[in-house]
Amino acid sequence: MFDRYEAGEQAVLVHVDFSDESANEDLTELKMLVTSAGATPLAVFTTRRTAPHAKYFIGTGKAEEIAHEVRQRAADVVIFNHALSPAQERNLERLFECRVLDRTTLILDIFAQRARTHEGKLQVELAQLRHLSTRLVRGWTHLERQKGGIGLRGPGETQLETDRRLLRVRIGSIVGRLAKVEKQREQGRRARQRNEIPVVSLVGYTNAGKSTLFNRITRAEVYAADQLFATLDPTLRRIELPEVGAVILADTVGFIRHLPHDLVAAFKATLQETREADLQLHVIDCADERMADNMHQVQLVLEEIDAAEVPQLLVFNKVDALPDGLPRLERDEEGRPRAVYLSALTGAGCDLLLAALNELLAVSYVEFQLSLPAAAGRLRSRLFAMGAVQQEEFAEDGSTGMRVRLPRTDWLRLVKQEGDALLTFIVA
């Protein structure tokens, strides 16, 4: 097995601009990621290519130039602002004679540093193992296949096969434990639905100020810092609104462009809080020049986790960093709150946010009779899971009559997902 060098704190950064704009990453964001990981950038190499080089990703000449710089500066690690294939990673490590990380591995490393709860650590380990499973190289030769003859019979598998088997066993174990955590979260959500407690989830690009806003509103002491992925473990707090009563506010992990799919899969239970929320507060750093692109990237992740249908209130944070930034509340054509401009750091405009939450959540509950045919068993199960069924009766023809009561936002979302055919089941 090729000797892999341990990551250190002195880093050389590599960024490639491709002809295809959709494949490009942000160099400023890479520097912030490296700083968040605890490394110090020594030098930055940029180059242009139409497509990645098969062996080195960046081309032979540029690779030799970086290798010379690594030796001159005694760098510990070279970090690419892109996803490398396992073969490219190994080829570069042989050339540079130091550890090589790609963007995905860097983000996984930051997540590993930030994880505090047992669930968070399991999720990070699952994502790391899934990523590692594609990067196992041939093992050392002391475990050989079985051979004939006395004293020559080996264990029957190579070290590489042993590593893969152990990885599969560990991944299976973690998936099972996370499934139990997901069931516990689901029980908590059902209890909140039975008690009719609305849930508001903070979503947004990483470092947009979600945790600072969360602390401001709930008077909590969640860790907040000017760095990417300062929050990893979800935190739930209860607040009181005048016309609504108890409301659960959930602080979740921040999103980032090209978020590794292994992370999205591993954090399924955590992101469920975002998917099942009654309202999303999309926190946006309005002082960031990449604001429009960041908002687009967040929407892409929300679509990937099936959370794009949840009603959303835009929260433009950090107005104190703008020259003429003033807190204000914007409304849509129907007069409902659409966006709030505030500063979570100073607290300016937070009263407008609470007023908007009070207005959006203080909606009337809808109540009506449904007559579901026998074939609509999936819809019946979903209504029970939502805690919306107040009474149920069975008819001789196999149909089900039920009295349903649920928040108007949930009903509108249900109609949007199930289609207009759902309206035909309503008994006049």
Task: Write up this protein.
- It comes from Pseudaeromonas paramecii.
- GTPase that associates with the 50S ribosomal subunit and may have a role during protein synthesis or ribosome biogenesis.
- Keywords: Cytoplasm, GTP-binding, Magnesium, Metal-binding, Nucleotide-binding.
- Belongs to the TRAFAC class OBG-HflX-like GTPase superfamily. HflX GTPase family.
- It is a single chain.
- By secondary structure, the chain is of the alpha/beta class.
- It has 13 helices and 15 strands.
- The protein has helices at residues 27-36, 60-73, 86-96, 103-114, 118-132, 159-194, 210-218, 261-266, 268-275, 291-304, 350-361, 377-385, 408-418; strands spanning 10-18, 40-49, 77-80, 99-101, 199-204, 235-241, 245-251, 279-285, 312-317, 328-331, 337-341, 365-372, 389-394, 400-407, 426-427.
- The strands form 3 sheets. A 7-stranded mixed sheet has the order 6-7-5-8-9-11-10, with helices on both faces.
- Strand 8 (279-285), helix 10 (291-304) and strand 9 (312-317) form a beta-alpha-beta unit.
- The protein is globular.
- Residues 1-7 and 138-149 have low confidence and may be disordered.
